[in-house]
Design a protein that fits this description.
single chain, Rossmann fold, UDP-galactose 4-epimerase, domain 1, 7-stranded parallel beta sheet, 3-stranded mixed beta sheet, 3-beta hydroxysteroid dehydrogenase, aldehyde dehydrogenase (NAD+) activity, Epimerase_deHydtase
Length: 293
């Protein structure tokens, strides 16, 4: 299958591209810069120059492909306005990709986060929240899944709060970056809130399985670790970096502070059974041992 991939040179995307190439697919990768194009080509993909705002380029990429995997997103979380702009840009992009696939029965795999459900781990059957700072992104994902009624084999991979590789990535990676900047390995609240996680290489396998097998209109959970206490995450980061570990105000994390302070475990039992997905790579706490001072 020839697969058009957006975000193919990021931490998750590069793993997805490798997974596809090693399973007899070919990849056309969106590349927003010369450096990204070179990285895509070095990985074995054909680069297509353009960014998420280049809707004609996205339509052309989808038209040239047997399936689409969308991963690109601006990770500027510095202000609420920046997040809002990123969500609007992404929603316009996935709408353009979807329209290019209508009536083709080709697969379109997009991405979201796992939902928050008070008092328990969320499941694939739980709805995404369309409220709050990133609620607009959920609306975009739901629109993609609705394309199942218009001849698109659409699916969504719900990623946990941390997708990691070699100790980098996701919310845990943000904790690490802030710890390096401030000299304190912090956690919001009492640190008992739980974050789910998955290794990027395991997540990549699930993207491929969804591309190949998912029935139209389904959402899947790429969750390996159902929920690690944030204080435990911060403790490993502090030990590896040689920094004190302590509670810090949620405001430390800017517009994501409220999300960081929320207990949000997630299950992937249905995904594992339905798609025969089995995570095999190191857990988050194990992977954080790769951090260097």
């Amino acid at each position: 299958m020839r697969v058009f991939v957006t975000g193919g040179t990021g931490l998750i995307g590069s793993a997805v591209v490798t997974e596809l190439l090693t399973h007899d697919h070919t990849v056309l990768a969106l590349a927003r810069s010369d450096a990204s194009a070179a990285a895509a080509e070095a990985a074995g993909a054909e680069p297509l120059q353009g960014g998420l705002a280049d809707l004609d380029v996205l339509r052309a990429g989808a038209a040239r492909a047997d399936g689409v995997i969308h991963l690109a997103f601006s990770h500027d979380f510095s202000t609420a306005e920046a997040v809002t702009r990123a969500v609007a840009e992404e929603n316009a992009a996935v709408a353009a990709l979807g329209e290019a696939l209508v009536g083709s029965e080709r697969p379109f795999v997009t991405v979201s986060g796992t939902p928050y459900v008070p008092g328990r781990a969320s499941t694939e059957a739980d709805p995404l929240s369309t409220e709050g700072l990133v609620g607009g992104r959920s609306r975009g994902v739901l629109a993609v899944l609705d394309l199942a009624a218009r001849g698109v084999r659409s699916a969504a991979i719900r990623l946990p709060r941390t997708v990691h590789h070699q100790g980098k990535g996701g919310f845990a990676g943000m904790l690490t970056d802030i710890a390096r900047q401030t000299g304190v390995s912090g956690y919001p609240g009492d640190g008992t809130q739980r974050w789910p996680a998955v290794h990027a290489l395991d997540a990549a396998v699930l993207f491929r399985l969804a591309l190949e097998q998912s029935p139209a209109g389904n959402a899947w959970h790429a969750v390996a670790d159902e929920g690690d206490a944030v204080r435990d995450i911060a403790t490993v980061i502090g030990r590896r970096l040689g920094l004190p570990v302590q509670a810090v105000p949620p405001e430390t994390y800017g517009p994501l502070g409220a999300i960081f302070a929320t207990d949000q475990p997630a299950s992937s039992a249905h995904t594992r059974e339905a798609l025969a997905w089995k995570p095999v790579h190191p857990s988050l706490l194990e992977d954080l041992e790769n951090l260097q001072p």
